[in-house]
Amino acid sequence: MATVAFREVHKSFGATKVLHGISLDIAEGEFVVLVGPSGCGKSTLLRMLAGLEDIGGGQIAIDGRVVNDVDSKDRDIAMVFQSYALYPHMTVRDNMGFSLKLRKEKQNLIDQRVANAAKILNLEPYLARYPRELSGGQRQRVAMGRAIVRDPKVFLFDEPLSNLDAKLRVAMRAEIKALHQRLKTTTVYVTHDQIEAMTMADRIAVMRDGRIEQLGEPLELYDRPANLFVAQFIGSPAMNVFDGTIRNGSVEALGSRWPTAVRGAEGQQVKYGVRPEHLEPAASGIAAQIIVVEPMGAETELVVKIADATLTVMTRGRSSAGPGERIFLAPQASHAHLFDAATGLRIQPP
Amino acid sequence: MREARLWLIAIPILLWTLLPIYHIFLFSISTKDSAFSGALWPAKPTLHNFGTVFRQEHFYLHDFWHQIWNSVWIACATGVLTLVVATTAAFAISRLKVKGGRVVMNAALFTYFIPAAFLAVPMYKAMGTYGLLNNRWSLVLAMVTLASPYAIWVLKQASDRLPWELDEAARIDGATPLQLFHLVYLPLMMPSLVAIGTYALLLAWNEYLYAFLLLSNNIPLAVGLGHFLASDDSPWELLMATALIYAVPPAAIYYAFRRYMVGGLTAGAVKT
Amino acid sequence: MAAIAIPHPPPAAPRRRLSSWQTWGVIMLMPYILVFLVFVLYPVTYGLWLARHPQSYRTLFEDPVFFRTVVNTIVFLLVAVNLKFLLALFLSGFFVHERRWIRWLSVIFIIPWAVPAIPTIFSIRFMLNPEWGIVNSLIFRLTGADGPNWLNDPTLALSMAMLVHIWKALPFWTLILMAGRLAIPREQYEAASVDGATAWQKFKYVTWPSIRTLYLTSTLLSMIWTLGDFNSVYLLTGGGPADLTHVLATLGIRYIRLDQVDQAMTTIVVALPFVLPLVYFMMKRLSVDE
Ligand SMILES: Nc1ncnc2c1ncn2[C@@H]1O[C@H](COP(=O)(O)OP(=O)(O)O)[C@@H](O)[C@H]1O
Ligand SMILES: [Mg+2]
């Protein structure tokens, strides 16, 4: 267990800057997820922590020790790759024991640690097999086993579930989380999938274009996104956002008046955001026309049209209304998010 | 109809391919008289020629076993040395991404494209300067020079296809470059290594030009065969028996490793 | 997507961490660098230096054998290489047919490539012997006439050398072109069939456009290698009769045998203007997707 600290970390590839001063402190035993769209620099940041990429500028510290000049193998970290990176010519047992073998540990210690990890991961029947003889999920577990065996200070995961099918992904998500609760090893986990981030993280760092847009606990990000990007990145289906103007304590937009708790200047240009599940149909309110109905069983997603904007509405249970019908939406001021039209920053209600 | 057309092509191919080979075989089992009669099959097939060769019972064959030994020695040394030189270079260029690796790769490619007979002249002169003429090592080193560019190129292509994450995983697992090389890289490259080792071995065994330029006594079998041409009334039946003995091992090796050779070598020979 | 940090000038970024990997890289590159320096760079430089005297060139151009050699080389390159490739193109079309027996035939077809040059060339040499050779004895038996003196007529002898060259190299290039043909998606042929294309049209509109680049590159590469083909000429004709069938590859060696190494180097330098563009082109082709 260890702390991890990034201080003003920079990185360029040739002339392209990919990280613009990342600062992030990770507590002992914490599970932090770096999430963001593809190409935003998550992997680069993780690989710099792993020592696979030179640190362009700034510092990275593990357990208070600056590791900029420390070789990967001396950082006491373990990494799980998206492609698993299992050694094809070694059995599962040898794959998991490889790092200990390189450290010249005694064979019985290696055997014991491998057996232990295999037990945790239900890999005992497969120890003599080669990676090519395993299913995707089993390979994934071997990759994790390889990390566990080392008992490192920090676990690093780079999109470890992206190569699995949807169902297995959900199962492995739970497994990794359970594993973390059991081992309590500090973990940095990279993914582009915000659901993975929301379900697994103690804290999430949302990244875009080499910057951290917001750092916080999952529900904090969900409830109080710091800016438009985070607002639309976190949550599925995505938050509805449209242009509006503050008039008389509410927002005038799409030909209707939308409630808000923000007390802004009269005539201020804003972006109005409201999550689909906060747009329950009501007996009266803002009129909308249903375009598409997508029943999902427990809930129903409606695509509706207000003026010439398309919004998503999520209702619990089933919907009796069909396409073409009119419904009314009654959003609540407490669930409305307002962002500055120019900067995209959140306007915090008092 | 279509089958008939295919056969019509197949028969000339078969004749064209096998005639010179059959001719060697025919001579090697013929007596001298029968060989020179132009017959398509000897009246009395005999293995006598092979006995003569193995017992070294002719002026041209006095050194037969010694020459075979030289050929074996040179071929094996070339195979091993080429593997060492090419594998380390390919690993450094492809996996360690050593600075200047590209320049070296281009230098190697350049060597690969110099016609072999052209390089032979300066090589001969340089071997003289190094005092290596007439030393078996001169031929081995020359053959390593000729074999390694292609070997490096093929091995680099093959190792570029290994997933990069394997190296990173090994680095994180604590492997040094040398450990990465022999614990991860070599086992994964085995099929290509077999192909390249075989390639270099055959190249050296089959080489005639460099062998006869660089070695004048202590010669390999290829040069020994060439000596048969020294006079007009050479014992052709013995030459052909010796030639057959000389040709069978490389052909056998080629066919034994064809699985590796076809995948490993022709794929890399010309990029499509 | 092998990724490695491309170095750039960072604000005080020490690269010490990578150094052991770079050091090992240099160490492991050393064997080949040594081989290259000692057995390629030094010999070639030394050789070029030997060929510095204008007098050598004068001597060379005055040697009647030289002019004949240049003509022979050009004929050899143009005729043998192109004939070989036309045959290879045709045969690759034959060998891609999916029949068990054709697969076996292709295994036999490789033999000339798999066996060393000397035995087979000597064998052909003796087959062509005017008195005892099997070729003339067949001609005599079939027609009652004496066959030609194959290797004693410069034109015939050079043609035979080309034939030997083709015999030996044809399987390899057939395999290469076969690989090119097999890489063409079958759907293209099926679509062409549906459109009612004849066999010739399929070749013209499907096969050829796909393998044209391969065909041309291979031809050039083969030209370079054919320039260096010493065996086919030397082992068959020895450059004779009367030094009339030499090519550049054998001429250089002939000068060495005459102990005129400077002259040998000069021969090669004269050939360089033709070789280097080919080499340059090939290197560009091969390093496209580096
Ligand atoms: N080795 C490299 N050389 C050049 N550019 C790179 C390299 N690695 C990553 N990049 C670039 O850096 C940016 C961030 O990449 P990455 O960290 O892999 O993104 P993510 O993992 O968030 O998808 C991308 O634009 C990518 O193209
Ligand atoms: Mg990534």
Protein described:
The complex is a heterotrimer of chains A (350), B (272) and C (290). Chain A is of the alpha+beta class and 350 residues long. Chain A has 2 domains: 4-232, Rossmann fold (3-Layer(aba) Sandwich), CATH 3.40.50; 237-340, Nucleic acid-binding proteins (OB fold (Dihydrolipoamide Acetyltransferase, E2P), Beta Barrel), CATH 2.40.50. Chain A has helices at 42-50, 92-102, 107-120, 136-149, 166-183, 194-200, 218-223, 228-233; strands at 4-13, 16-26, 31-35, 57-62, 65-66, 77-80, 154-158, 186-191, 203-208, 211-216, 240-247, 250-253, 256-259, 269-274, 281-282, 286-295, 299-306, 309-316, 326-329, 337-340. In chain A, strand 9 and strand 10 (211-216) form a beta hairpin. Chain A is elongated and about 75 Å long. The mean pLDDT of chain A is 92. Chain B is mainly alpha-helical and 272 residues long. Chain B is globular, with a radius of gyration of 23 Å. Chain C is mainly α and 290 residues long. Helices cover 75% and strands 0% of the residues of chain C. Chain C starts with 18 loop residues before the first helix and ends with a helix. Mean pLDDT of chain C is 85; it is low at 1-16. At the A-B interface, strand 6 and helix 2 of A face helix 8 and helix 9 of B. The site of adenosine-5'-diphosphate has 10 residues of chain A, from helix 1.
What is the terminal separation of chain C in angstroms? 12 Å
Q: How big a fraction of the residues of chain A is strand?
A: 25-35%
Can you write the helix and strand succession of chain A as a string?
EEEHEEEHHHEHEHEEHHEEEEEEEEEE
Biggest beta sheet attributes of chain C: none
* Global mean pLDDT of chain C: 85
What distance separates the N and C termini of chain A?
40 Å
Number of helices of chain A: 8
What would you call the shape of chain C? globular
- What would CATH call the architecture of the largest domain in chain A? 3-Layer(aba) Sandwich
Number of strands of chain A: 20
Q: What's the architecture of the domain at 74-258 and 275-289 in chain C in CATH terms?
A: Orthogonal Bundle
Principal-axes shape call of chain A: elongated
Report the C-alpha radius of gyration of chain A, rounded.
24 Å
**H/E topology pattern of chain C:** HHHHHHHHHHHHH
Strand ordering within the main sheet of chain A: 6-7-8-3-9-10
CATH topology of the domain at 74-258 and 275-289 in chain C: MetI-like fold
Q: Supply the CATH superfamily name of the domain at 74-258 and 275-289 in chain C.
A: MetI-like
- Beta content of chain C comes to under 5%
